[in-house]
């Protein structure tokens, strides 16, 4: 278990002091794939570097199974970093060494016998799908292949925690998908804890079970991914989950605004808005939407306008409240503010 307690980090720059992290508190359980997400400058990379003490916190503690990493000496931290490894956006491979040598490098530092290290490295290259690239050099590989080698190298010392700092940001969508599938499979096969630093909500959605949202160095929301996606509370979270939904969107003047949030509702041949029109006589106007279908289930949001006044709005809210996995949030004071399954 990783516990981050009251962690703050400040830097002194030419323009003055900068508070990169402010009183961060998080718990990452063993076996989690935990996402930490935020816009550029939110403090994500600083946080992950504090977890393995590449950056020393200004205040607060990072505990690994109750052991305060900030209290450890240089030699003890070297041992910890064999169990808490990291992959980066830029891969950070040794360009003058072939793939086999890259994966063997941390084993060499750990003084493993050469024959044993080579056997382990070949096993890991097979694990990441590159058994035939042992003698190839990084420059001969695609970006996705280089990241696979970096993952193999990070796994060489049998770590308990894998830190991924924007590990897919430099990759195209198809390659990103394959790398995320690989990380998820490794998590399932080994039970390794994974912390994913990203600015892409799609990455969190794809593989994480829990997520924390950072804004200006603070955690503004944290919880299970399904809950955060379906009912985002903080403005920063809503901007990440529903980037196309304007906070200040207004009615045309002919009705009331209602935000629908789809949290795994089953798709049918009779869509919700059409059903409401036929069953209730309420012809809602769709003002904007961002939804996605995954395995015949809908996720995302829709902003609609309910024509009429309070009576029509109340009927619409009641109708929507009976639809499984759909939340309706009315943008008016006199209506029931939320109707949940």
Descriptors:
341 residues, alpha/beta, six-stranded mixed beta sheet, five-stranded antiparallel beta sheet
How would you sum up this structure, described in words?
The chain is of the alpha/beta class. Helix content is 34%, strand content 31%. It has eleven helices and 15 strands. It has helices spanning 44-51, 74-83, 99-109, 114-127, 143-155, 173-190, 201-207, 225-230, 235-241, 272-280, 310-321; strands spanning 2-13, 16-28, 33-37, 59-64, 67-68, 84-88, 161-165, 193-198, 210-215, 218-224, 255-266, 285-294, 297-307, 326-330, 338-339. The protein has a six-stranded mixed sheet, sandwiched between helices. A hairpin with a 2-residue loop joins strand 1 and strand 2. The chain is elongated. The two termini are 34 Å apart. Residues 333-341 have low confidence and may be disordered.
Rg is 24 Å
**Strand line-up across the major sheet:** 6-7-8-3-9-10
Give the biggest sheet. Answer: 6 strands, mixed
Overall helicity: 25-40%
N-to-C SSE string, H for helix and E for strand: EEEHEEHEHHHEHEHEEHHEHEEHEE
Q: Overall 3D geometry?
A: elongated
Q: What structural class do helix, strand and pairing data support?
A: alpha/beta
Question: How many β-strands, per DSSP?
Answer: 15
Number of helices: 11
Report the uncertain regions: 333-341
Taking all residues together, what is the mean pLDDT? 86
Task: Quote the beta fraction.
Answer: 25-35%
The span between the termini is 34 Å
Explain briefly what this protein structure is:
The chain has 341 residues and is α/β, with parallel strands linked by helices. It is built from eleven helices and 15 strands.
């Amino acid at each position: 278990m990783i516990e981050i307690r009251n962690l703050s980090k400040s830097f002194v720059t030419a323009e003055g002091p900068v508070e990169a992290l402010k009183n961060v508190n998080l718990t990452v359980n063993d076996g989690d794939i935990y996402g930490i997400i935020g816009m550029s400058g939110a403090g994500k990379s600083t946080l992950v570097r504090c977890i393995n003490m590449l950056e020393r916190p200004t205040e607060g503690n990072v505990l690994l199974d109750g052991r305060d990493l900030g209290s450890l000496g240089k030699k003890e931290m070297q041992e910890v970093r064999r169990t808490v490894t990291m992959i980066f956006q830029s891969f950070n491979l040794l360009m003058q060494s072939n793939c086999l040598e890259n994966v063997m490098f941390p084993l060499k530092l750990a003084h493993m016998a050469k024959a044993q290290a080579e056997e382990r490295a070949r096993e890991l290259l097979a694990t990441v799908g590159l058994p035939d690239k042992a003698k190839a050099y990084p420059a001969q590989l695609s970006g996705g292949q280089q990241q696979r080698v970096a993952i193999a190298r990070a796994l060489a010392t049998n770590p308990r925690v894998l830190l991924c700092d924007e590990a897919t940001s430099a990759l195209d969508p198809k390659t990103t998908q394959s790398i995320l599938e690989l990380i998820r499979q490794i998590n399932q096969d080994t039970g390794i804890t994974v912390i994913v630093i990203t600015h892409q909500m799609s990455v969190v959605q794809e593989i994480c079970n829990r997520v924390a949202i950072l804004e200006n160095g603070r955690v503004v929301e944290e919880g299970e991914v399904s809950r955060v996606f379906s009912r985002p509370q903080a403005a920063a979270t809503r901007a990440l989950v529903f980037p196309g939904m304007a906070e200040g969107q207004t009615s045309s003047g002919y009705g009331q605004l209602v935000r629908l949030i789809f949290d795994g509702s089953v798709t049918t041949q009779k869509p919700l808005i059409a059903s409401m029109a036929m069953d209730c006589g309420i012809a809602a106007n769709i003002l904007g939407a961002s939804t996605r279908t995954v395995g015949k289930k809908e996720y995302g949001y829709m902003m609609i306008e309910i024509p009429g006044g309070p009576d029509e709005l109340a009927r619409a809210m009641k109708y929507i409240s009976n639809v499984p996995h759909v939340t309706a949030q009315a943008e008016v004071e006199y209506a029931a503010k939320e109707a949940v399954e």
